[in-house]
Design goal:
alpha/beta; Rossmann fold; Histone, subunit A; seven-stranded parallel β-sheet; 15 helices; globular
Length: 350
Amino acid sequence: MVRKGPLSGAAPFALILAGPTAVGKSAEAIALARTLGGEVISLDSVQVYRGCDIGSAKPTLAEREEVPHHLIDILEPDQRFDVGVCTKRARELVESVSSRGKLPIIVASSGMYLTALLHGLADAPGADEGFRQHSAGLATETLYAELQLKDPARAETLHPNDRVRIVRALEVLRSCGPLSELQAQHAHRHMLIRPLIFVLMRDRKDLYARIAGRVEAMLAAGLLAEATRLYERYADCWPLQSIGYRECVQHLKGNLPHGELFAAICQSTRRLAKRQITYLLNEPKKRGWLVQPAALTESNVVPLRVQYSGPMPVLSIDANQCLEMVELHRQSPPSTPELYYIESQRLSRN
């Protein structure tokens, strides 16, 4: 195997839980933290904001009192917190938690944030205020169409309504070429922590049912009222562009009937889950990480249909076996990043 991005000898160890939205990452992180004496570091672009509780599926206050959580409720909704700042803070927290003899458990809600955490960011140019003023007068649809034409690889990774990242990609394009090429050149960076990565997976039908259940629970818990408070105070702030809030704002503006909120949020969330799964299947190969399981012939491996393209090999282990794996890697951190696709549904059972 060709191994890209060798690890720094001084890099600290961390357990990372990744996977599509609604797969159960937060619950597993809390359960592991209880058993292993860990602290949870949230790598989520919305949970950092105060008042964005329901829409970001933020851990409850009771859960956060029982298990220490970091990078939650640290900013007001009108403050910006980009991927570079977030991942830098997360790496500092990994070192801090490790120095106290605790296990850093990172819940990575975004594949892009995970990559940036491990490799840092590409050396992209700073903000172009002239272009940002120019783009402010253009529709998001127009900007996305331009990005599809000039940098289709980057456009494919973004939601058509993700205006902030679309503008950023076009901004970089004007300055030094396609952002996708810049990121590809960056793929050989040294690793900044020594990770054991568990990518939690579920059968597609099960995941979609969980998404529907979570959206229903969010709406019942007052998602629309929460979005209304945020919109009335902060208008079109960054968190309100995320899934769930975005649809609620469309309703408040008269562009989406109340009766269609549930279906619209479910559809957006399913699309997000599909993009997340695609990223988590492709990115490790590009980075040269050691990916397991490699084949269905291995022990404790089952076929799991996570995409329409067919079943993939996924490690099926219970909670006790998971704990053994973590302790083994904790005592002897991997010299190459190791990533395991794990059946989330079985992991919760002893």
